[in-house]
UniProtKB/TrEMBL annotation:
Pfam families: Bac_luciferase. Keywords: Flavoprotein, FMN, Monooxygenase, Oxidoreductase. One of its GO terms (molecular function) is alkanesulfonate monooxygenase activity. This is LLM class flavin-dependent oxidoreductase. InterPro entries: Luciferase-like_dom (IPR011251), Luciferase-like_sf (IPR036661), SsuD_RutA_monooxygenase (IPR050172). The keyword Signal does not apply.
Length: 283
């Protein structure tokens, strides 16, 4: 199982200037990927901006959006922006994408929180058209440079359509930031959908969890603040935070047991020292 680390781009105590340094340290420590959190109505840094900063500060580590709220964006603009991040990184971006579950994140006029599944399916076709270099409507020009590619896609969510969509156009699935026993049934659903779609091999199965090597009370408060708008789900997230070295080791075992290909460990605070502390235990 590979071990990635989250960028604290949505931490309420975030100084945005640390994102490049966080990214450099994570790459040097040997983590497999750097992942962002997707949120708009929160005092953080947009995931696309954090990914761009990480792309410029690193050279080998994978970049992952875990997960970006697709239908909250105008599809053409998002596709172009992501192609730019991927290009700057040298082709290291994997797009984790989902529908979104918080009404306050839908801030763009004309893009409300309804009809999200159909909108995402329509948006995906727009992404592919942009990434394939098709001309924009009313223009003789494509929106991306030559050499742009279709980004690998992983989908997050719990609706049956999520797994069908992932099996149809994606590379796999990313679970929510809850304990492994809650994620295991979703992994099983993804494996089943993959086989039913006639796909070869196995889907990528990624998971997300929070860790804290420092003060557990501070960590818990920060995570609780972030999920305050969805308190029932937030309680499930809180039960899965790994505290200290032994907590992290136990967390790793639990996700290995359910067949996780990569576990993204999200920091509970924006303390740069957490990177090395985690690496000593998890890598």
């Amino acid at each position: 199982m590979k071990i990635g680390i989250g960028i604290p781009n949505q931490g309420s105590d975030l100084d945005p200037k640390i994102i490049p340094e966080w990214s450099r340290r994570a790459e040097a420590a040997g983590f497999s990927s750097l992942a962002t959190a997707g949120r708009i109505a929160y005092p953080g840094v947009m995931d696309t901006v954090a990914l761009a900063a990480a792309a410029g500060a690193t050279s080998t580590i994978e970049l992952f959006s875990g997960v970006l709220i697709g239908p909250a964006w105008p599809a053409t603009l998002l596709a172009k922006e992501l192609a730019g991040v991927d290009g700057v990184s040298g082709g290291r971006l994997t797009l984790g994408i989902g529908l979104g579950g918080r009404a306050d994140d839908f801030v763009v006029d004309g893009l409300p929180m309804n009809g999200l599944g159909q909108r995402l399916d329509d948006d995906l076709q727009t992404y592919f058209d942009v990434w394939d270099g098709k001309e924009f409507e009313g223009s003789p020009n494509p929106g991306v440079p030559a050499g742009a590619r279709r980004l690998p896609l992983l989908f997050g969510g719990a609706a049956p359509a999520t797994f069908e969509r992932a099996a149809r156009v994606g590379e796999g699935y990313v679970g929510a930031a809850v304990p492994a026993p809650y994620v295991a049934p979703a992994f099983d659903q993804m494996r089943t959908a993959w086989k039913q779609a006639g796909r070869d091999g196995d889907p990528q199965l990624r998971a997300i969890a929070y860790f804290a090597m420092g003060d557990p009370e501070v960590a818990r408060r920060k995570v609780e603040e972030y999920y305050a708008v969805t308190p029932e789900f937030g309680q499930a997230v809180l039960t899965g935070i790994a505290y200290g070295p032994e907590g992290v080791r136990e967390l790793l075992r639990s996700f290995e047991d359910i067949g996780t290909d990569e576990l993204i460990l999200n920091p509970s605070t924006a303390d740069l020292d957490e990177i090395e502390r985690l690496a000593e235990v998890a890598l």
